[in-house]
């Protein structure tokens, strides 16, 4: 459905959009049409008469030559598309164009954020900066002229002197200048000038000190396979009978030899006692109830 702007004359027809040479055909994809549209110097479009104020508020400009409202930049184009009251002169729909523009803005925002983070990222210190920090932290003094002159017998060049600062065979660096440290190592024979900066060869493990095996282990003899697969038990019935008789005799003897305690005699007469208060018989172990009551009431 065609719409007219407020400045159109009633007798003047709308220009034919099919005559625009920048347009693609209907067989092209939506992104192709949108990219072709975005390559135009002005983003032209149309809106109904009732939406003039909303389009102006979004930042649209009027093109008197083509008698259309246009967006001067992509930001205004997004504002116009979000109003849903302005239609771009493109075969792709406004929703498709808006989604593509928002995606591009998001990608541009992420790329700018990545560049900003990369610019803010702290760069790793250089070798010279690291060396300066080590010298300051360890308190390494600068080599004096006298210390450098003391290295003359070994013909140490400034490059070798600088290289000796990384030599682990010279010991710790704290409190010593490079020249004094190198002089101490050369004077004590820890290394020679040709060994400065050269990694020492690794020592091979000597096998001479390893104990020799005096005698090889004797191999145990192999036993023949055990071929028996079934077993049978032979009982000696006479021996079992004698064992049962002895067991019964020992049980009876233990029962006869059982002795009752002094209180619990055989007829159980020692289990009871006569109460001194009520005169009734009560258990010897627990006592009478009247006796407990008297003790409770302190009678």
Globular, elongated, flat, extended or rod-shaped: what is the shape? Answer: flat
Order of helices and strands: HEHEEHEHHHHHHEEH
In total, the number of strands is 6
Main pleated sheet: 4 strands, antiparallel
Query: Pairing-aware structural class of the strands and helices?
Result: alpha+beta
How far apart the termini lie comes to: 119 Å
Query: How is the largest sheet built, in terms of strand order?
Result: 2-3-1-4
Helix fraction? 25-40%
What share of residues are in beta strands? 5-15%
Q: Which residues form runs of ≥5 with pLDDT under 50?
A: 1-23, 256-268
By DSSP (H or I, 4+ residues per run), the number of helices equals: 10
- The radius of gyration over CA amounts to 56 Å
Let me know the average pLDDT: 76
Quick tags:
299 residues; flat; disordered N terminus; two-stranded antiparallel sheet; alpha+beta; 6% strand; 4-stranded antiparallel β-sheet; 38% helix
Q: Can you put this structure into words, describing what you see?
A:
The protein is an alpha+beta fold. Among the domains are: 102 residues, no CATH class; 57 residues, no CATH class; 37 residues, no CATH class. It contains ten helices and six strands. Strands 2-3-1-4 form a four-stranded antiparallel beta sheet. Strands 5-6 form a two-stranded antiparallel sheet. A hairpin with a 6-residue loop joins strand 5 and strand 6. It is flat. 12% of the residues are buried.
């Amino acid at each position: 459905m065609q719409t007219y702007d407020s400045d159109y004359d009633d007798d003047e027809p709308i220009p034919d959009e099919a005559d625009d040479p920048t347009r693609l055909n209907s067989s092209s994809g939506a992104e192709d049409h949108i990219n072709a549209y975005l390559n135009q110097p002005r983003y032209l479009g149309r809106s109904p008469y009732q939406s003039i104020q909303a389009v102006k508020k979004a930042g649209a400009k009027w093109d008197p030559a083509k008698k259309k409202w246009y967006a001067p930049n992509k930001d205004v184009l997004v504002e116009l598309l979000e109003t849903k009251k302005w239609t771009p002169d493109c075969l792709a729909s406004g929703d498709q164009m808006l989604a593509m523009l928002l995606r591009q803005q998001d990608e541009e925002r992420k790329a700018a954020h990545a560049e900003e983070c990369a610019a803010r990222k702290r760069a790793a210190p250089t070798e010279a900066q690291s060396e300066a920090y080590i010298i300051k932290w360890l308190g390494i003094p600068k080599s004096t002229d006298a210390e450098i002159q003391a290295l003359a017998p070994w013909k140490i060049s400034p490059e070798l002197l600088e290289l000796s600062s990384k030599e682990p065979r010279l010991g710790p660096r704290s409190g010593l200048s490079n020249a004094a440290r190198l002089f101490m190592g050369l004077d004590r024979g820890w290394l020679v000038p040709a060994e400065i900066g050269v990694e020492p060869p690794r020592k091979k493990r000597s096998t001479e000190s390893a104990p020799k095996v005096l005698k090889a282990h004797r191999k145990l003899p192999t036993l023949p396979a055990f071929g028996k697969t079934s077993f049978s038990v032979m009982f000696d019935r006479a021996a079992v009978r004698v064992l049962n008789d002895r067991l019964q005799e020992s049980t009876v003897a233990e029962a006869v030899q059982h002795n009752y305690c002094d209180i619990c005699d055989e007829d159980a007469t020692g289990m009871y006692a006569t109460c001194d208060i009520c005169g009734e018989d009560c258990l010897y172990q627990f006592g009478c109830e009247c006796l407990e009551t008297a003790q409770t009431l302190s009678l």
